[in-house]
From TrEMBL:
<dbReference type="Pfam" id="PF03514">
    <property type="entry name" value="GRAS"/>
</dbReference>
<keyword id="KW-0805">Transcription regulation</keyword>
<comment type="similarity">
    <text>Belongs to the GRAS family.</text>
</comment>
<protein>
    <submittedName>
        <fullName>OLC1v1035328C1</fullName>
    </submittedName>
</protein>
<feature type="region of interest" description="SAW">
    <location>
        <begin position="403"/>
        <end position="479"/>
    </location>
</feature>
<dbReference type="InterPro" id="IPR005202">
    <property type="entry name" value="TF_GRAS"/>
</dbReference>
<feature type="region of interest" description="Leucine repeat II (LRII)">
    <location>
        <begin position="269"/>
        <end position="301"/>
    </location>
</feature>
<keyword id="KW-0804">Transcription</keyword>
Length: 483
């Protein structure tokens, strides 16, 4: 799962010039299980599982924490653990046992620590986090790994809000982390990353649906121009290139792809790979680059030709502009001026763009737990890729989401409900996906190691891809009224 990888993490290290620091809270806490409403198009879950997933453990821990709080047993770590033990004895049939029971206790401690942080009770929060350290591990099971990263995020938040971030020890801890240059890592690992991402079912199925929406929109066009707002490794374009190369009813005269990004070296590497692939297909092809941040994009950055059908593809990019809503509005004005045949959008289907820290923390915790489970089950033989995703992408994503506020908080995922409202206000119309798009996505999900955990739901005219009941991606297609 790419998550915008290099481009998103690069944004986390930048300062923003916006004065509008926070986005709206759209969903109440009772809806934060992130389940999708609407018609279920495909669900591989035919047999219930007896094991406890990371998400279920996090949710059960949340329920237990609420029950313990209602009994007013005290706020210290010792009181919390005693109350938890008593509950185990009274409700043992309904709770996990063995390793799952230990994971439940760990999840309980983490969420209790988050509440203390929200209440600015730093000392009690630190004590609970110290207990988390006894089991949380970057090399443990998914629960232990998720708790590790969220614990680090809480510690950084404590340091920032208590003023300790000015202290020498905090600066030393940040220096010890030495975050990788993600774009350089992507260039170095490109062949392996492309191969692994093409095996991650939710990523591949989401891309397939978006690509098919574009193919449907340009099916009668001989000259096609695709604009990618965040091309990453470019593997998704091999799908459309193969399709266009085999299109005989309306032979293609030229395919042009314009990639937008801030790293010329990275875009050149992708362009060389795609050009080589097009040559192997004997596909007329031209690769163009726009070296620019999305917020600085202008219509005259693009080279358009007569009679070409223009389509825009945006994967995990629009949410990166939410820290400054005027940036997103400016970008969509550029899109309107381009007036594409279609704009295909893939976004993270989670609501973490809220001022309310407990809600944001829990939403992010559930989402990341689902992704860690999905990576574990679908890419068991790709341990290097899983570790790269967790230790590079998710480490920095979780840290930004949990530890920062205001313009520094750039991880602001929203639900399809938000995007539908926002894009409609910009004059865009949601379009339905074809049966072929849905069918192909379902076939890709069925091929994965644990297809029973995957699902496709429809929300409005958009598709929601999920893992064991938790929404992961939204895929939507949009047009302006002229088209």
């Amino acid at each position: 799962m790419d998550l915008g990888s290099g481009s998103m993490i690069k944004n986390l290290s930048q300062q923003n010039s916006c004065h509008n620091n926070e986005g709206p809270c759209l969903l109440p806490l009772k809806q934060q299980d992130n389940n999708t409403k609407g018609k279920r198009l495909w669900d591989g879950n035919t047999n219930a599982t007896s094991t406890f997933s990371t998400v279920s453990i996090m949710k059960l821990a949340k329920q237990r924490l609420l029950r313990i709080k209602s009994r007013d047993v005290g706020s210290g770590a010792a009181s919390l653990l005693i109350a938890s033990e008593l509950e185990d004895q009274s409700e043992c049939d309904a709770l996990p046992s063995g390793e799952a029971s230990e994971d439940m206790e760990l999840a309980l401690l983490l969420q209790a620590a988050a509440e203390k942080v929200a209440n600015r009770q730093w000392v009690q929060a630190q004590k609970l986090l110290s207990l988390c350290d006894l089991s949380a591990s970057i090399n443990g099971n998914p629960v232990q790994r998720v708790v590790y990263y969220f614990s680090e995020g809480l510690r950084e938040r404590i340091d920032r809000e208590s003023g300790r971030y000015l202290a020498e020890e905090f600066g030393e801890r940040l220096r010890m982390k030495k975050p990788l240059d993600v774009q350089q890592a992507e260039i170095h690992l490109r062949p392996d990353l492309m191969e692994c991402q093409q095996e991650f079912p939710l990523q591949l199925a989401s891309q397939s649906a978006a690509i098919q929406a574009i193919l449907d929109a340009v099916e009668r066009s001989k000259r096609v121009h695709l604009i990618d707002f965040g091309i990453n490794n470019g593997s998704h374009w091999t799908l459309i290139m193969q399709n266009l190369a085999n299109r005989y009813d309306c032979p293609l005269e030229i395919l042009r792809i314009t990639a937008v990004g801030s790293s010329k070296e990275m875009l050149e590497a992708v362009g060389n790979q795609l050009s080589s692939f097009a040559k192997s297909l004997r596909l007329p092809f031209e690769f163009l680059m726009v070296i620019s941040e999305l917020k600085d994009l202008k219509p005259d950055h693009f080279d358009f030709q007569r009679d070409e059908a223009v389509a825009i593809y945006s994967e995990f990019r629009l949410s990166t502009q939410l820290a400054c809503p005027n940036h997103l509005e400016t970008l969509l004005q550029v899109v309107k001026n381009i007036n594409p045949f279609i704009m295909a959008i893939i976004e993270i289907e989670a609501t973490v763009n809220t001022r309310d820290f407990p809600t944001r923390f829990y939403n992010g915790l559930v989402f990341c737990s689902a992704v860690f489970d999905a990576l574990r089950h679908t890419l068991e033989h790709r341990a290097t890729f899983r570790k790269w995703m967790e230790e590079v992408v998710f480490c920095q994503m979780i840290g930004n989401m949990v530890a920062t506020e205001g313009r520094r908080r750039l991880v602001r995922f929203e639900s399809i409900v938000f995007w539908r409202d926002f894009l409609a206000k910009c004059g865009m119309m949601e379009t339905e996906f074809s049966n072929l798009a849905v069918t192909q996505a379902g076939i890709l999900l069925r091929r994965c190691n644990k297809s029973s955990s995957c699902s496709i739901n429809v929300d409005g005219k958009s598709l929601i891809f999920g893992w064991e009941g938790t929404s992961i991606h939204s895929v939507s297609a949009w047009k302006f009224k002229d088209h």
